[in-house]
């Protein structure tokens, strides 16, 4: 029985291959995601282990602010306590360490390294405690005008010992003499990050503040365990210094966990897409096994007639699915290795550079891939297998119609109920319920559409096919009827296209709306002529002195800076926006609800209306601010503003941060030119002070708005890339179904050829059937996608549904691409259809 | 000698399958002319080559040697496209079963070869054909809604609709009971006698063959004999002869 079944499946090698393809692709994506994440994790784990290899104890400030999803910022510490640490018995040596922002500038004035990739550091390198840094050429820097850099940066920027290098950091832009090039362990740079290395006094003064570092690194003489040493150091330090001591192992683990968390989000994101691909694969497998069972009707009936039980027939098909699932998963796992590279390339292509070296293949990846792959295949095959077992033995002797009739009422009703539930969940999510409702809503809506599908597939197919019939005469009419004749199969074939199109449309619609809102928001707030923006996203930014420099230029009438800071508001870590109410009037205006932007003083705070309401704050309420270095301040709520998805709910006066003992960078500077000064006149002098020095990027207002909304395209590109595989699986599904339909209709095609249908007419019929099927999925998918896009906007953006903007152009492109997919999917099946031998096909018994 | 009144002609038709020791000669030098306006039948036991002869005459299969022509057109030099056009415009087909496209209704099936060629056809002629086969009230029905006999009549109407040079019928009554079968055969007879068509029917049924004007007998790929003005008894008798 088993042998027979396997033999039957091997007889159709082409079909076997195509069926496996769906599983191979899905599992490849899944395993690729795991391999990619594991490799990243391992790369960073190894990185940190290397960084802290010689560090036996680590002393740092106990003041810090942690923001959810934003990491933590820790206060700087004065170098004065270093001697105390050095004097602790068991300590061989201790040095200060800094990891602050520093951007090396290329010889042509552009910043070295990437904006969205590995960070750009400024750090200390010293004789006694160089850690993993070793001198490759030259020597260590001594004094305020000397520096070293990592080998990778030197190669990238074509720097050699003896060159003068410009470096930008918090305190400004400065030139140094390059006296040495260093390697990190046996790599040119850890993780591709750039390092500008100085001696301690220079580093403190240039990167943080004179006399301050981020931490002390301590080397033990081995007489105590690290834990004991850390405790001793801790005891020796005065409590007033607010310092804490960790062992080298502890700090390593902490950093590994922090990165692990961030990578976890990425991995979850990617895994979600691989599950979508597998979900679509389910449809394809289900479809294939249904059709296979239908075609083996006679053989199965014969087996039943000669004594096989229902169970045996069912089991045979299930075993076949098991074998396909197993083989497909194994092949998919190996393909996943290649795919993990592809993921790395995809991320790099859209601008997110992540260093991943080597390959980390864990046992759990292999196991999960195979288990999931087999499970998906077998589960998808269960229903068709059971149906196959139910074939009556009589069917072996008589010709029973293979085509199934339309839907049944119960199924349709269930589908509508599920759909309604899903819609309700989505509406709930849109009006403020838990975000879990969004997930459930989407799932239920998809499920509902798919259950209802066969019931509506026929009328939709006939409707979509009407123009094709008009255009293509009898071949179009036949294609239209063929698409409609088996609604269940048509629905199942169109379903993957539907899911793919719905997702692409939803994300595109969401992105369009976000882009439109960015344009509107920036457009309404920013009234100036030029913008200077920070080259880095997140870490570092514009030096705070730049805005004053620019403001004093003869062409500039008004300059104001906008920044971000991490602080605690009433004990909870938050990102806040920093503005200068004095210089921002008329140049950068937020939409206020109560009071004006100029009501803000250094002892106050502006809060978004919705946040104030939810916390019960009113004008005059006292709010406690705690900065990274531990200083607290009481702020008075001085005004409320209209909330927006792009801002934090808090604005604080710049004077609170600049000059405090905390790192601070501006992120944008807005400029208005003096009356009578034209943009063309001002451009070059402004560029000389900014872009040409790598201090920031100068853009006109329009250029800035374009680039901001352009960032959305980056993420959209990534999502398109991730959905591409699902689309490929959908195409495979169409190809398989068409091939099987052609096979089933062999006799009919033979008849048509006999009475005079040309080969190209046969191809045309197959092609248009494919197009109709694909367009069914596309049209319904677009409608669904737009609805989902609206809900997504309502859920994620504070401004809600009113900001939804549909891009007609993108929607049109999606429909056209679906059309093309239909045409492409038909190429191979159409060729097979024309190869049908007429006489064989029409032979009766 | 071939003349234009011959609807179909085969000259020394040879069709072989396989090679060497396993070679099968389905047609072993058949020369025959089917005259226009006549109802002809081809009979013979299984393996006699009767279906093969029809397939080759109709352009559905190619000869190994010899020639076939339809209304004076030699089929040998024609490529697939040309053969397809020939079948569409100049030949009509009626098969034993599965004659109709299930997704088209009766009328659409009848005009199918014309639609494939993008032609409108002769409306008066088509109406006459429909009237003759008597299915006027069933034109919008799908094949699944028609009986076996009705389906065969639609197939015949289709074969007639494009006013072909010749109609080939392969065991047209094979799946029908005797009453329905004789109805169908009567229509075919009428098509020849009253509408001036040419039909060549392959059959193993003596009763069916007796409706024809002339019967050609095949055995082992060769012509074994002819009979004009056949009756079922004479045919059965002759077949018995042939079997020896």
Molecular structure report:
The complex is a heterodimer of chains A (845) and B (244). Chain A is α+β, with helices and mostly antiparallel strands. Chain A is 55% helix and 17% strand. Chain A has 22 helices and 25 strands. In chain A, the strands form 5 sheets. In chain A, strands 6-7-12-9-11-10 form a 6-stranded mixed barrel. In chain A, strands 17-18-23-20-22-21 form a 6-stranded mixed β-barrel. In chain A, strand 10 (164-169) and strand 11 (172-184) form a beta hairpin. In chain A, helix 12 runs antiparallel to helix 20. Chain A is elongated and about 100 Å long. Residues 400-407 of chain A have low confidence and may be disordered. Chain B has 244 residues and is of the alpha/beta class. Chain B has 9 helices and 10 strands. In chain B, the strands form 2 sheets. A 6-stranded mixed sheet of chain B has the order 6-7-8-3-9-10, with helices on both faces. Classes of the chains: A alpha+beta (845), B alpha/beta (244). The A-B interface holds A 401, 403, 473-475, 477-478, 481-482, 485, 747-748, 751-759, 761, 838-839, 842, 844 and B 55, 58, 60-61, 80-81, 84-85, 87-89, 93, 95-99, 101-104, 108, 112-113, 115-118, 144, 158, 171, 174.
């Amino acid at each position: 029985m088993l042998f027979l079944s396997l033999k039957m499946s091997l007889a159709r090698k082409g079909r076997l291959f195509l069926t496996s393809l769906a599983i191979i692709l899905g599992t490849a994506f899944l395993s690729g995601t795991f391999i990619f994440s594991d490799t990243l994790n391992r790369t960073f784990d190894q990185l940190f282990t290397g960084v802290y290899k010689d560090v036996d104890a680590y002393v740092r400030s106990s003041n810090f602010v942690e923001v959810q999803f934003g990491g933590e910022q820790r206060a700087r510490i004065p170098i004065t306590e270093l001697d105390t640490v050095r004097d602790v018995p068991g300590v061989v040596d201790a040095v200060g360490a800094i990891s602050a922002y520093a951007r090396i500038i290329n010889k042509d004035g552009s910043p070295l390294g990437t904006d969205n990739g590995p960070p750009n550091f400024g750090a200390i390198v010293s004789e006694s405690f160089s850690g993993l840094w070793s001198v490759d050429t030259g020597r260590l820097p001594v004094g305020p005008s000397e520096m070293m850099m990592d080998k990778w940066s030197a190669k990238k920027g074509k720097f050699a010992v003896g060159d003068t290098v410009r470096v930008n950091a918090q305190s400004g832009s400065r030139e140094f003499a390059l006296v040495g090039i260093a390697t990190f362990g046996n790599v040119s740079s850890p993780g591709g990050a750039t390092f500008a290395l100085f001696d301690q006094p220079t580093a403190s003064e240039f990167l943080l503040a004179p006399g301050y570092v981020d931490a002390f690194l301590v080397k033990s003489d081995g007489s105590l365990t690290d834990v004991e040493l850390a405790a001793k150091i801790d005891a020796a330090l005065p409590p007033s210094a607010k310092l804490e001591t960790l062992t080298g192992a502890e700090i390593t683990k902490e950093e590994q966990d922090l990165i692990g968390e961030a990578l976890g989000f990425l991995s979850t994101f990617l895994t979600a897409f691989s599950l979508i691909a597998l979900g679509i694969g389910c449809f394809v497998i289900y479809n294939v096994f249904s059709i296979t069972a239908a075609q083996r009707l006679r053989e199965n009936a014969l087996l039943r007639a000669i004594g096989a039980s229902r169970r045996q027939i069912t089991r045979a098909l299930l075993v076949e699915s098991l074998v396909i699932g197993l083989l497909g998963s194994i092949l998919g796992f190996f393909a996943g290795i290649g795919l993990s590279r592809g993921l790395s390339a995809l991320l790099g292509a859209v601008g997110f550079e992540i260093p991943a070296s080597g390959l980390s293949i864990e046992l759990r990846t292999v196991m999960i891939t195979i288990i999931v792959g087999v499970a998906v295949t077998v589960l998808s095959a269960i229903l068709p297998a059971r149906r196959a077992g139910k074939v009556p033995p009589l069917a072996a002797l008589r010709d029973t119609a293979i085509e199934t009739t339309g839907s049944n009422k119960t199924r349709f009703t269930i589908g509508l109920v599920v759909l309604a539930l899903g819609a309700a969940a989505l509406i709930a999510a849109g009006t403020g319920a838990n975000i879990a409702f969004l997930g459930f809503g989407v799932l239920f809506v998809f499920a509902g559409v798919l259950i209802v599908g066969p019931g509506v597939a026929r009328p939709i197919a006939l409707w979509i096919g009407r123009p094709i019939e008009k255009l293509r005469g009898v071949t179009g009419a036949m294609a239209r009827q063929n698409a409609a004749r088996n609604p269940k199969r048509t629905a199942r074939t169109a379903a993957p296209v539907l899911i793919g199109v719905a997702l692409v449309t939803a994300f595109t619609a969401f992105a369009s709306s976000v882009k439109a809102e960015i344009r509107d928001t920036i457009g309404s707030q920013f009234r100036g002529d030029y913008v200077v923006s920070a080259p880095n996203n997140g870490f570092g930014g514009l030096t705070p002195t730049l805005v004053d420099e620019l403001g004093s230029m003869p062409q500039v009438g008004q300059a104001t800076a906008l920044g971000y800071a991490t602080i605690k508001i009433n004990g909870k870590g938050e990102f806040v926006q920093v503005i200068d109410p004095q210089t921002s009037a008329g140049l950068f205006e937020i939409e206020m609800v109560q009071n004006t932007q100029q009501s803000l003083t250094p002892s106050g705070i502006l809060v978004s209306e919705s946040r104030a309401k939810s916390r019960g704050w009113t004008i005059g309420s006292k709010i406690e601010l705690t900065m990274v270095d531990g200083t607290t301040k009481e702020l008075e709520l001085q005004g409320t503003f209209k909330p927006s998805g792009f801002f934090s709910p808090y604005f604080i006066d710049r004077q609170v941060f600049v000059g405090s003992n905390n790192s601070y960078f501006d992120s944008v500077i807005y400029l208005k030119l003096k009356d009578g000064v034209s943009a063309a006149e001002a451009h070059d002098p402004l560029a000389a002070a900014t872009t040409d020095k790598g201090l920031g990027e100068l853009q006109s207002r329009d250029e800035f708005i374009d680039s901001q909304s352009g960032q959305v395209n980056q993420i959209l590109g990534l999502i398109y890339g991730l959905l591409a595989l699902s689309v490929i699986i959908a195409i495979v599904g169409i190809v398989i179904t068409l091939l099987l339909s052609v096979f089933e209709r062999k006799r009919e095609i033979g008849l048509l050829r006999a009475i005079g249908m040309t080969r190209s007419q046969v191809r045309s019929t197959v092609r248009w059937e494919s197009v109709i099927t694909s367009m069914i999925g596309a049209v319904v998918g677009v409608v669904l996608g737009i609805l989902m896009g609206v809900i997504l906007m309502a859920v994620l953006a504070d401004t809600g549904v009113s900001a939804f903007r549909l891009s007609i152009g993108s929607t049109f492109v999606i429909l056209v691409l679906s059309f093309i997919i239909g045409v492409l999917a038909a190429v191979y099946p159409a060729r097979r259809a024309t190869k049908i031998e007429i006489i064989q096909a029409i032979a009766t018994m | 000698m071939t003349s234009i009144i011959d609807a179909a002609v085969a000259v020394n038709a040879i069709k072989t399958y396989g090679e060497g020791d396993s070679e099968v000669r389905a047609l072993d030098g058949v020369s025959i002319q089917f005259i226009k306006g006549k109802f002809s039948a081809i009979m013979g036991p299984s393996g006699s080559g009767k279906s093969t002869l029809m397939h080759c005459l109709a352009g559905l299969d190619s000869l190994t040697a010899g020639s076939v022509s339809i209304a004076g057109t030699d089929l040998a030099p024609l490529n697939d496209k040309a053969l397809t056009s020939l079948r569409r415009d100049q030949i009509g087909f009626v098969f034993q079963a599965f004659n109709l496209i299930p997704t088209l209704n009766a009328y659409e099936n009848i005009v199918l070869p014309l639609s494939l060629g993008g032609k409108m056809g002769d409306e008066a002629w088509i109406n006459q054909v429909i009237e003759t086969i008597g299915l006027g009230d069933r034109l919008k029905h799908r094949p699944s809604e028609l009986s076996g006999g009705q389906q065969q009549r639609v197939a015949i109407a289709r074969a007639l609709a494009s006013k072909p040079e010749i109609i080939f019928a392969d065991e047209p009554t094979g799946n029908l009971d005797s009453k329905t079968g004789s109805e169908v055969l009567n229509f075919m007879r009428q098509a020849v006698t009253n509408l001036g068509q040419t039909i060549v029917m392959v059959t193993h049924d003596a009763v069916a063959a007796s409706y024809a004007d002339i019967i050609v007998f095949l055995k082992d790929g060769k012509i074994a004999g002819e009979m004009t003005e056949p009756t079922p008894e004479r045919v059965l008798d002759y077949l018995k002869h042939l079997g020896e």
